Amino acid sequence: VVGVKKGGTRAVLEFIRVHPEVRALGTEPHFFDRNYHRGLEWYRSLMPRTLDSQITVEKTPSYFVTKEAPRRIFNMSRDTKLIVVVRNPVTRAISDYTQTLSKKPDIPTFEGLTFRNRSLGLVDTSWNAIRIGMYAVHLESWLQYFPLSQIHFVSGEKLITDPAGEMGKVQDFLGIKRVITDKHFYFNKTKGFPCLKKSESSGLPRCLGKSKGRTHVQIDPEVIEQLRDFYRPYNIKFYETVGQDFRWE
């Protein structure tokens, strides 16, 4: 699962690892961006033990925006299947900012970081929270190494409204039986997203941690409108490239 940050990658990982044919690494190894110098054996040593019939999954959302990641993954295995969880880039940016703010309360305002010049509507694309949402730009690097048939895009929005449907497509993409279905989910009204029902073995329902489902910072509607305008051409290009309309407009 190579991206994107604040898109729903943790949910996809937690949902898919319910499948008996999938084993997943719980933490983000950051091998293809920060730890590449440690070598492939180090990376392999982190992985859960699997049977020949099982698929190993890891997720590090920053891979999607790391220039070197596609080439490095390709050099490890050109058959790797890649999953990218995307959501409306405006909402994603606000979620990203909300997360940063919870750790560093003294950072500038969202508006202050978003614009180089607000009156001219000049968006600061060097700010990571903005840059990540330019999906079409980042995707180009991946398509130099991997065909679209090896990349599956999950809608972060549909993951909330129809988790079983989105996970059904993920299972099809991975070539495994649709084991994870409606009966695995319930909607947690407090958090505002679906959680896994208790499994026979653990007896406890599994919900994502406290850091998920945070209430977003209130942003001036005009700023949101300007950002929508900024992302529109990138979104359209992204839809056209992947052949899927995510309806963020």
UniProtKB/TrEMBL annotation:
The active site is at residue 6. It holds the Pfam family Sulfotransfer_1. The keyword Nucleotide-binding does not apply. Its EC number is 2.8.2.-. Keywords: Disulfide bond, Glycoprotein, Golgi apparatus, Membrane, Signal-anchor, Transferase, Transmembrane, Transmembrane helix. Disulfide bonds join 195-207. It is a single-pass type II membrane protein. Residues 1-232 form the Sulfotransferase domain. It is found in: Endomembrane system; Golgi apparatus membrane. SUPFAM superfamilies: P-loop containing nucleoside triphosphate hydrolases (SSF52540). InterPro entries: NST/OST, P-loop_NTPase, Sulfotransferase_dom. Its main location: membrane. One of its GO terms (cellular component) is Golgi membrane. One of its GO terms (molecular function) is [heparan sulfate]-glucosamine 3-sulfotransferase activity. Belongs to the sulfotransferase 1 family. This is Sulfotransferase. It comes from Origma solitaria. The gene is Hs3st2.
